[in-house]
Amino acid sequence: MPHASINAERLLARIHELGAIGRDDRGQLTRLAASDSEKLGRDLLVHWLKAVGLDVAVDRIGNIFGIWQSEENAEQLPLMLGSHVDTVINAGIYDGCYGVLAGLEVIETLKEQGVTPARPIVVAAFTNEEGVRYAPEMLGSLVHVGGLDIEAALATVGTDGTTLGSELTRIGYAGTVEPCALTPHAYVELHIEQGPVLEREATTIGAVENLQGISWQRVTIEGVANHAGTTPMAMRSDAGLAAARVGLFLRDHIARSNAPSVATIGTMRFEPDAINVIPSRAVFTVDLRDPDEERLQALENALDAQLRVIMAEEGVTVTVERLARFEPVTFDRAIVEMIEVSASARGFKSRRMTSGAGHDAQMIARIAPAAMIFVPSRDGISHNPREHTDPADLVAGANVLLDVVSRIAGG
Ligand code: HGY
Ligand code: MN
Ligand code: MN
Ligand code: MN
């Protein structure tokens, strides 16, 4: 019996159409949460949701829900699909958008097949998954599961000094639906792997069984501005040099620990930021991750201890602000097995794996059984315009999602 299939051309066309929105004059794709460019992406998604005949609801934190429900199934908890349409800076076109558009495509395919599912099916686009403009990341889905108070979330101040609430109002996506209004029966998120594993193993489908813990901190180091030419090295309180030591420490500490932990200093700025002035201040972020909670805590403690050493040795002061802290998450085994059954039935090689990236699924897993489907990323690249997944793999992932949805939502 041939397997049902999504409409590949339609899905791929929508991915590329949405991927064209939010490009700057250098052609770089950047749709930061609640920005003008993200509004354009949101507007296009809402247009598609309505064109497919879904009810569209927007909650107070700007989460968008496309809802397909009938009189017969309205009493049932919905199956939720989703991801996000905000991006990092100079992004690829698949991260997040693929999962939202594949969810829409699965619904449209089922509608075309005349299926009436046993439960409503919802496709969600969560606000500020990337966390580049407002911390923490996965903010919209965190509010959705009650992990962050809505008023505090709306008052979040971004890297540009704006508040998330005022920006959502400005772009017309400060919805009226109270958060947590939709408790799903289950949640399935389709996403590109954003890493090298599936491609390296020539495997089409990742059945994601867990997701690593994440720690985000902002570190401020205060030194003393002084003349770059006249100040002997032993007399400096150099905030810039102290900051540089942190990155080297984390890399060497992880190398010695032989653990799969990762550390990233993704943002850094100096003051007064002048070529011939010893920096008086360094402000930077530290992203630490590990699949094991104890190891992640040990890495945070090691960083904390090293900051004290640097403070004493460099004659600087250090303050740390915690931006986000999420423990590792284990996904729902039954859904993971459904993913594997579908992949096998369709002749796709699959493997169980851990997600290195954060995803909305890790938040929804707090209130419902959840799991993720991965497809390969070429060269393991993501958060980079070179992000790419072969069309055949994009379609394969969407068809596995179709099977899992049919299994869970029936009809
Ligand atoms: O940071 C992450 O892992 C995700 O891309 N927001
Ligand atoms: Mn993503
Ligand atoms: Mn991302
Ligand atoms: Mn995600």
UniProtKB/TrEMBL annotation:
What does the UniProt cofactor note say? Binds 2 Zn(2+) ions per subunit.
Q: Name one GO molecular function term.
A: hydrolase activity, acting on carbon-nitrogen (but not peptide) bonds, in linear amidines
Q: Which Pfam families match?
A: M20_dimer, Peptidase_M20
UniProt-listed InterPro entries: Amidase_Cbmase, Bact_exopeptidase_dim_dom, Peptidase_M20, Peptidase_M20_dimer
Q: What is this protein called?
A: Zn-dependent hydrolase
Q: Where is the Peptidase M20 dimerisation domain?
A: 212-309
The record's family statement is: Belongs to the peptidase M20 family.
Q: What does the entry list as the binding residues for Zn(2+) 1?
A: H84, D95, H191
Q: Where does Zn(2+) 2 bind?
A: D95, E130, H383
Write down the required cofactor(s): Zn(2+)
Keywords noted in UniProt: Hydrolase, Metal-binding, Zinc
Query: Per the UniProt entry, what species is this protein from, by scientific name?
Result: Ensifer oleiphilus
**Gene3D superfamilies in UniProt:** 3.30.70.360, Zn peptidases (3.40.630.10)
